[in-house]
Write a structure and sequence with these properties.
mainly alpha, about 55 residues
Length: about 55
C-alpha cells in the first residue's frame, strides 16, 4: 500500500467507549491511586498570662 493511501484512511473509532465513561474511569483511577492528605498540623496556642490588678 503506497504511503498516500495510508495517510488518507480515516482514523479508527475507539472500541465503543463513550467519552463520559472514559473520563469517569480516569477520575476513579486518580481517586484510588492518590494517597490521602496528611492531617493538618494542630496549631499550638501559648497560654495567656493573666495580669492581676496591682493593690492600691
Amino acid at each position: 500500500m503506497p504511503a498516500s493511501e495510508r495517510d488518507e484512511t480515516p482514523p479508527r473509532a475507539s472500541a465503543g467507549v463513550s467519552m463520559r465513561d472514559l473520563l469517569a474511569s480516569c477520575a476513579a483511577a486518580r481517586a484510588v491511586s492518590t494517597p490521602p492528605r496528611a492531617p493538618a498540623p494542630v496549631p499550638t496556642v501559648k497560654p495567656v498570662e493573666l495580669r492581676r490588678p496591682e493593690a492600691a
